[in-house]
Write a structure and sequence with these properties.
Layout (H helix, E strand, L loop, with lengths): L12 H12 L5 H8 L3 H11 L43 E4 L5 E4 L5 H11 L5
Helix pairs in contact: 1-3
Length: 128
């Protein structure tokens, strides 16, 4: 291929510039080009970056634009609120819900089940 291969110590910027110039004129992939010339693909890429020579033939159209990573919205199990019956202490509260944290939420008898479910959803991190 075009350039003689000096020892690693003799490979300066001019040598890499000529080799990378040869690469830009071929249709070979960077890996194939490097293997055929006995140099490391990573070295070609590094010197290409240092010298401002593009070694990635895919170009920007192959690389998707960076998007911010959004944490997944928690998926909550549906909550069914049932009145507690058969307990002497239940006179002060009508509903008891155990949250994922293990905490218990006791709701008075005047609160409708739909409002209680919305409160649980808010406490568990879901939307009301």
């Amino acid at each position: 291929m075009g350039l003689p291969h000096p020892g690693k110590a003799g490979r300066g910027a001019a040598w890499w510039r000529r080799l990378l110039g040869e690469f830009t004129r071929t249709a070979e992939t960077l890996s194939a080009f490097a293997a055929a010339r006995g140099v490391a693909r990573s070295s070609l890429h590094l010197w290409g970056r240092r010298l401002g020579i593009v070694t990635d033939r895919r170009g920007a159209r192959q690389r998707p634009a960076a998007r911010p990573i959004r944490p997944a919205r928690p998926r909550l199990a549906p909550v069914t609120v049932l009145p507690v019956a058969g307990r002497a202490e239940s006179a002060a509260w009508a509903y008891e819900v155990t949250l994922r944290t293990g905490q218990r939420l006791r709701v008075g008898p005047g609160v409708p089940p739909a409002q209680c479910a919305a409160l649980v959803a808010a406490l568990e991190g879901g939307a009301c």
